[in-house]
Amino acid sequence: MNPRDLVIGAAFAGAIALFAWRAHALTRSGAIAAFAVGTLTYASGTVGFTLVLLAFFLPSVALSRVGRARKRELIDVGKLGARDALQVLANGGVATGCAVAWAFTHDPRWAFAFAGAYAAATADTWGTEIGTLAKRQPHSILTLRPVATGLSGGITLPGTLAEIAGALWIGLIGIIGIALAYVLGTFDVGFSVSKAPAAVMVQVLALVALPLGGIAGATLDSVLGAAAQELRHCDACDRACETDPHVCGNRTRRVHGLPGLSNDVVNLLATAAGAALAAGIVNALHS
C-alpha cells in the first residue's frame, strides 16, 4: 500500500460516495463510510479489488430502485432505503479488512476472503431486493411457516434464485479482479509473463470458492435472521418489526432473538462466513 494508490483511491471513492449520496442511495454517514471502504480497497488491491467492490455496489443500488413503491410499503424492516454507515460497514467492513491484510502479506487466501465476503454480501442483498417483490408470502427458512414480507429469516423462490445469481456474479467478476491483483501486484503495474500460470490457477480456484462462500454466507444470514436476530413488537401498531423505535415513532420491545443482534450484526457475520469459507476452500484445494 503506497501513498500514490491512497490518493487515487481517495479521489475515486470520493466521487462514487458523493454520487451515491446525491442519488439517495447512501446517507451522509453511509457516504463517509463508503469513502473509507473505497479508499482502502483501491489502495490495497488497486483496479482488481475495486472491480469486485463495484460489482457489489452498483447492481445493489440498481436493484434497490426496482419496485420502489412496493418496498416503501415495508414499514417494519430497517434494511431498506438509503444505507447508513453501519449498513455500509456491515456489508463491506470484513472485505476491507481482508483487502488490507492482502496488501501487507500478498497471501492469496486474503484475496479470496475479500471477494468471498462480497460474494456473501451480494447474494444477501440481491436476495433481499428481489425476494421482497415476490408475489407469494415468504416462509421461515427454519420452520417453513409464513412470515411477513421483508422480515429477516424469510425466504422465497425468487429471492433464493437471486442469491445464487449474486454469488455467481461475484464469482465471475472475482476471477478477473483477483487475477488482476495477483498478476499486476499491489506495487507493480507492469505485466509479468512469469506470473501468468499462477493467475490461471487463481481463476480456477475462484470458480469454486467464491460462489460457495457467497451462497453459504447468505444462507447463514437467513438462518441467523430466523433463529437469533432481534425481532421486536410495536404495541401501538400491534405489528412485528425490526426497528426501535418503529416507523410510527413509538418504542418497541424485543420478543425474540438475542439482545443487540441486529440485522447489521447478522450481515457482518454472514460476510465473515463467506470470507472464511472462500479462503478455506482455496487453502484446501491449493495444499
Brief sketch in words of this structure:
The protein has eight helices and five strands. With 287 residues, the protein is mostly helical.
Walk me through what this model shows:
By secondary structure, this protein is mainly alpha-helical. The chain has one domain (3-286). Helices cover 67% and strands 5% of the residues. It has a 3-stranded antiparallel sheet, with no helix packed on it. A hairpin with a 4-residue loop joins strand 3 and strand 4. Helix 4 packs antiparallel against helix 5 and helix 5 crosses helix 8 (263-286).
Note the main attributes of this structure:
287 residues; two-stranded antiparallel sheet
Query: H/E series, N to C?
Result: HHHHHEEHHEEEH
**Strand order, biggest sheet?**
4-3-5
N/C terminus separation: 28 Å
Domain unit count: 1
Taking all Cα atoms into account, the compactness measure Rg is: 19 Å
Assembly state of the chains shown: single chain
Broad structural category: mainly alpha
- Main beta sheet strand tally, sense and closure: 3 strands, antiparallel
Integer average pLDDT? 87
- What percentage of residues falls in helices of 4 or more residues? 55-70%
| Global morphology | globular
Number of strands: 5
Topology, pairings included?
Layout: H1 3-22, H2 28-64, H3 68-72, H4 85-105, H5 108-131, E1 139-140, E2 154-155, H6 157-184, H7 196-227, E3 231-234, E4 239-241, E5 253-256, H8 263-286
Antiparallel strand pairs: 1-2, 3-4, 3-5
